[in-house]
């Protein structure tokens, strides 16, 4: 009789059944714990759904119908035909018509438009006399991806415009030319776009996580109860938690901007004090949001998950990775609710365009409103924990 024919000892059989029994019990326990941890379970479901929706519907690497302005110094049939030909390329959408050069420049500096078309006075008369006048198309090239495709479409605009007004078919010599001027980043260097954007992206990630973890850490260690027993108000607790990280954020911003200017050649054309002031506002806004997260979650794992839940749409819908103007309208509305969207416009405008507070007042006001809303929610929820 071989060894294979001998039945297994009873203790081995019990051990095998015991292994599967204990493993099954552990499996059931983990499912029960996951069911109770509703925040983590929501993250498991929401993160892939959010990624799919954002990448599938909101992200567009070849943007169309980009906001544009026209400096119309002459209202003629040919001028209107040129504007219509530009719109027919599907890259330009004229939302502003100005008659002053300063207004034209301010629209580009503030980021309200990505393109500006200047039609000079006496344009049609010069064309008919054969003087070959120039029509200027100024592009905000701080985002090379958004500007390059539109600028590349200008070659057919002349023929399209002239086919309706002056010629039938292709004329042997074009009676005017289009001069494209890529402002603020004429070399289309990606580092001039990425490095300023990294300031806001890194600050968003670190400020959210640091603040959310600092409060939940107090709760998990039991030191929050001792803190609450002291004669201190919720606003004072919040202020004491936020201020140290404002200094940390300042240090991070200084390092990134310094390295960007020193190693990557990113210019700093604007006022450094204005950049520091608005960076402080942005840091405080993110810290307030991080503090709000800490009042919602119950542990550090949930705090990290919720911070990443906020950070993901921030980098995708703010214009850091993909052109903001190329997203659908609903995604742009969501992006306007994110602090990073406004700060990216601010830091790029100050560093690359030399923008002033007058050009940035809308984005500065939006950051202030977002900060006040986040602070109000955070203090209100923190008071409820005291009751």
Ordered list of secondary-structure elements with their pairings:
Elements: H1 10-36, H2 38-58, E1 66-72, H3 77-88, E2 92-98, H4 101-110, E3 115-119, H5 123-129, E4 134-140, H6 144-152, H7 157-165, E5 177-183, H8 190-221, H9 223-228, H10 234-263, H11 272-296, H12 300-317, H13 329-336, H14 339-353, H15 357-386
Parallel strand pairs: 1-2, 1-3, 4-5
Antiparallel strand pairs: 3-4
Descriptive notes:
Belongs to the ABC-2 integral membrane protein family. This protein has 387 residues and is an alpha/beta fold. 67% of the residues lie in helices and 9% in strands. The chain contains 15 helices and five strands. It has a five-stranded mixed sheet, with helices on both faces. Strand 1 (66-72), helix 3 (77-88) and strand 2 form a beta-alpha-beta unit. Helix 8 runs antiparallel to helix 10 and helix 11 runs antiparallel to helix 14 (339-353). The longest helix has 32 residues, at 190-221. The mean pLDDT is 81.
